[in-house]
Inverse folding.
């Protein structure tokens, strides 16, 4: 029979524009979140993290926003570059301070940057 | 720092054969994770270890899968017997207890079972 692959949401942006990638998480008890970037043929790479006692955190060209009320996380990339083309995953950890590990990954969003 | 090292990078095997994937975590890290990534199911946690002890293996799909961590610098994921539906990219990741939850991923092993 026909196989159904995982349909990744895709975001296509022009080089130089800002990108916003969204993620809805499921567990209201999750209190730590991470964004990962995965380039083709490579393992996921840490971008930025945020704890639930914060609603915003900034890194170099990236900003993560957390809205606990609606269980929503977003990653903003300023001045998007071709090298930003990748799949972006959000991940959550329930019970921060408990046993380490057990990141729960979202399905991912594919970012495509047009030169 | 060499990062997380996985071997082999690619493995092609026939159905029914035993497959062993290897991982060397970052020196000093005491948590190790095995993930599987497919187009169908995305990135799935299979098992993780803290201080060489398996903590959660609920993600291991079935008894054909087993993982060991005999010491702090080495872990294996074994599939016996392998089946075509095991074809995927298998990632190993490590992190350091008490220093945040960032996991560092290896380059992955692409497994094809024919």
């Amino acid at each position: 029979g026909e196989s159904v692959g995982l349909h990744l949401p895709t975001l296509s942006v022009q080089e130089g524009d800002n990108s916003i990638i969204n993620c809805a998480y499921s567990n209201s008890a999750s209190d730590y979140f991470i964004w990962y970037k995965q380039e083709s043929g490579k393992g996921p790479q840490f971008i930025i993290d945020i704890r639930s006692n914060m609603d915003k955190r900034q890194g170099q060209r990236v900003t993560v926003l957390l809205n606990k009320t609606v269980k929503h996380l977003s990653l903003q990339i300023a001045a998007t570059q071709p090298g930003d083309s990748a799949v972006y995953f959000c991940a959550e950890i329930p019970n921060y301070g408990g046993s380490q590990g057990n990141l729960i990954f979202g399905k991912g969003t594919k970012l495509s940057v047009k030169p | 720092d060499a990062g997380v090292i996985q071997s082999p990078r690619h493995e092609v095997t026939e159905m029914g054969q035993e497959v062993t994937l290897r991982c060397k975590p970052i020196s000093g890290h005491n948590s190790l994770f095995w993930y599987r990534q497919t187009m169908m199911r995305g990135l799935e946690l299979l098992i993780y270890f803290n201080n060489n002890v398996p903590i959660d293996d609920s993600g291991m799909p079935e008894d054909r899968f087993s993982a060991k961590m005999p010491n702090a610098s080495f872990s294996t994921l074994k599939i016996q017997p392998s089946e075509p539906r095991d074809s995927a990219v298998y990632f190993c990741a490590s992190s350091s207890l008490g220093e945040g939850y960032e996991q560092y991923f290896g380059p992955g092993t692409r497994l094809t079972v024919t």
